[in-house]
Amino acid sequence: MPSLPHSLRALRHRNFRLFLAGQIVSLAGTWMQSVALSWLVYRLTRSPFLLGLVGFAGQVPSLVLAPIAGVWADHGNRRRIILATQTLAMVQALLLAALVLTGRITVPHVLALSVFLGLVNGFDIPTRQAFLVEMVTGREDLANAIALNSSVFNAARLVGPAIAGVMIGLFGEGTVFLLNGLSYVAVLGALLAMQVPPRAVPRGRGDPMARKLTEGFRYAFGFPPIRALILLVAVVSLMGVPFTVLLPVFATEVLGGGANTLGFLMAASGVGALTGALYLAGRRTVSGLGHVILAAVAVFGASLLGLGASTRLALSLAALFGAGLGMMVQMASSNTILQTIVDDDKRGRVMSFYSMAFMGSVPFGSLLAGVLASRIGAPRTVMLGGTACLIAAVVFARALPALRAQVRPIYVRLGIVPEVPV
Q1: What whole-number distance in Å separates Cα of residue 164 and Cα of residue 162?
Q2: SS3 of 163, please?
Q3: What DSSP element (H or E) covers 70?
Q4: Which of 125, 126, 127, 136 falls between 20 and 30 A from 59, CA-CA?
């Protein structure tokens, strides 16, 4: 069993400690807003379709902007980009709070502000992923940093929804949005306190944007292991991850509960995700993560089938624990492998394609889930997504031996595995 110091080894880097401290506060607010926004839309409309539409509006900009953001992340000042995106996200939350607290909020307002935040996240997410390598110097601690970052993300996912459920019942959604806006002060302060050495200017900085995009695309999709990981993330994000937008339907119509029930459901998924992140933080090597990804996708798909079949809160909580664990382990393990094998001068662009697969596919899945749920019901929609994930796991399993053989020379060069198999 790994020791605690080993599981926290990335914290020896000062910049990463600062970043993680800010994230703890800010991400709790983000998850609180996510729950409050879903509840607000469902309270105003009682429409599964509009739940899906709001999810679509908030995430589809990532699909369009991620490649451009990846070029900026490779050739620009990553910390300044993140400072700008986090400031704009804070403005979005405060505007949302003002509209709700003054009683002027409408669904068009929600859609417009969701699109705005999606535009911000389109630049923030790939840049933040690429910035990890500047906060944690040396690849030996990079996997642990990704796992710890995921742990904080999912600890916030555990705490945030539970707090939001209580806060919505006591004070309403507007107070939750206000608290989220204030939470960005922590991450902005952490970014300003960092001491980041200047980064070497990559080759081709003056090249046209189209040439940089083409170079990144050929690099990412010309190497089968990178291509396979990105495509698997895309399938799971399109068909499986949108179960989250339907949780208000499960809380009210399937389980007969309210805002507190929704908070419990999201918290159960957060506990599973946190468990998966802590497991990854304790791993001593990235070797073997291919099999971990395969198992995670299988667990995720099976858990969605269980959620769709359940009509009892305890069973739904157990299924969501498994779904959160499987989703977290797959996404973080894929992130870790990509960050380990990618060339530094193309890191931003590869992570932008990862962000497109993860965040860019979800809005289409959310829209599809909303349409299907309106016609066949939320439980059957979720079960359909679980089946698609299990099929993807089978396809990935067949390709895994060849992919491992192609990654092995990189791991040998980096000293991750011995030159002669043992």
Answers
A1: 5
A2: helix
A3: helix 48-75
A4: 136
pLDDT digits (tens, 9 = 90+) for 139-158: 667 778 877 887 777 677 66
The reported pLDDT for the residue numbered 138 is 65
Q: Measured between alpha carbons, how far is residue 184 from residues 30, 93, 95, 165 in Å?
A: 9, 10, 14, 20
Cα 155–chain centre separation: 13
Q: Which CATH class name applies to 4-193+209-414? A: mainly alpha
Q: Name residue, tokens 């002060």.
A: 185
* DSSP result, 185-242: HHHHHHHHH---PPPPPPTTTTS-HHHHHHHHHHHHHTSHHHHHHHHHHHHHHHHTGG
As a whole number of angstroms, the distance between CA 109 and CA 107 comes to: 5
| 60 phi-psi bin (left φ>0, alpha ψ -120 to 50, beta other) | alpha
- The answer to whether the beta carbons of residues 52 and 370 sit under 8 Å apart is yes
pTM of full prediction above 0.85: no
Quote the tokens at residue 364. 């289409």
Task: Kindly list the distances between the CA atom of residue 311 and the CA atoms of 1, 72, 249, 315, in Å, as whole numbers in the listed order.
Answer: 37, 47, 12, 8
